[in-house]
Amino acid sequence: MYSEFTAQEVIDRLQLLPLPTEGGYFRETYRSPLRHLGHALPAEYGGERNASTAIYYLLTHDSFSAIHRVKSDEIFHFYAGDLVEMLRLWPDGDSAVDLIGNDLAAGHEPQIVVPAGVWQGCRLVPGGRWALMGCTVAPGFDFADFEAASRAELMHEYPARAEMIAALTPR
Fold it and tell me: 3-class secondary structure for 101-118?
């Protein structure tokens, strides 16, 4: 059904824009009008946030989601396209690489949760053309909550994942 579309056709149809710093393409589709007051959130938020936000997120064969973390939980939903591999790095030193896709028999996950404060980045598996996902964030995303990764620091903390960290961090 979706295989006949090119990445550019998906970008055009969904009116996606390049996502600065992280990579890929996106469009915000929802920002809750309900707001959490600053005193109701942990101090690191530094103020009010929307209750939740949602975006479309597209990866192409020549893009990736650079490793980053945010202060809120993120839930990735797979919609269409090719298989995605996601690296997650927990503060306690644990890590995982998960396959996000729709082939349940092959062990793919159509939804992945990235808890607040966990480093994450993703890319298409080799040979992939594009993948369309969604990402829901709660409390809602704010660029003030985004932190880009340092390749050197992550490679020092997670040496077993050095190859994928190098692939998912800008040069």
Answer: CCCHHHCCECEEEECCCC
Residue 141 near residue 134, CB atoms below 8 Å: no
Using DSSP's 3-state secondary structure scheme, residue 31 falls into: strand
Say whether 119 sits in a helix, a strand or coil: strand
Q: How far apart are CA 34 and CA 164, in angstroms?
A: 38
Question: What is the rounded CA–CA span in Å between residue 72 and residue 99?
Answer: 22
Q: What are the tens digits of pLDDT across the range 15-62?
A: 999 998 899 999 999 999 999 888 888 888 889 999 999 999 999 999
H-state helical runs in 3-150 = 7-14
